[in-house]
Design a protein that fits this description.
By secondary structure, this protein is an alpha+beta fold. The protein has 6 helices and 7 strands. It has a single domain, classed as 3-Layer(aba) Sandwich (GIY-YIG endonuclease), CATH 3.40.1440.40.
Length: 183
């Protein structure tokens, strides 16, 4: 007898198992959901925010933009994911809109982010888009230059982002839908 969970049976019925393994968020156990994306008056805002991740002061992340269960974009940032609009009411606030934090840039929606927002417009309206993130390690080494020791921190988000994209492309024959260019 084959043991199947209810979730697996529902996925089979709904056709979710047709999704390639490498593009299915359910296979990325190390990533944590940051928030869902919603729109009001053509402006993005976030709901169901995981405040511990969104407002963490860490500055090395790989993030995924997901539609349903499908990874649409793998991205990286050396900035915080979000900076709260209000230090007094972190629970009820959105990240500051603008370039000081990664999810704030998506809220502002300019440049490349405008393309991504346009591509996801109907999915956001239907309430199926979410952000997921992985906190990347920061390692340190000491380098001696001219007799002086310098501590150098190394962030790994760019390398990890590209490795994940390459693995997806190798397995599926294509990059995620919203990852157009190699770095």
């Amino acid at each position: 007898m084959i043991d199947r969970t209810i979730e697996q049976l529902i996925d089979d019925i709904m056709g979710c198992n047709a999704l390639p393994y490498e593009l299915d968020i359910r296979n990325y156990k190390e990533f944590h959901k940051v928030c869902d994306v919603a729109v009001d008056d053509n402006k993005w805002y976030y709901k169901n925010i995981n405040h511990d991740i969104m407002y963490d002061e860490h500055r090395s992340w790989v993030y995924l933009i997901v539609d349903g269960y499908t990874i649409k974009k793998v991205g990286e940032t050396g900035r915080r994911l979000g900076i709260p609009e209000s230090k007094q009411d972190i629970i009820g606030c959105q990240p500051v809109s603008g370039s000081t934090n990664r999810l704030g840039r998506y809220r502002a929606g300019d440049g490349t982010d405008l393309y991504i927002r346009s591509a996801l417009k109907s999915a956001v309206l239907s309430g199926t888009v979410s952000f997921w993130a992985l906190r990347c390690p920061v390692t340190s080494i000491t380098v001696t230059v001219s007799g002086k020791k310098f501590k150098v921190n190394r962030q790994h988000h760019k390398d990890l982002e590209e490795s994940i994209i390459d693995a997806i492309e190798k397995a599926t024959g294509a990059r995620p839908a919203l990852n157009k260019n190699s770095k």
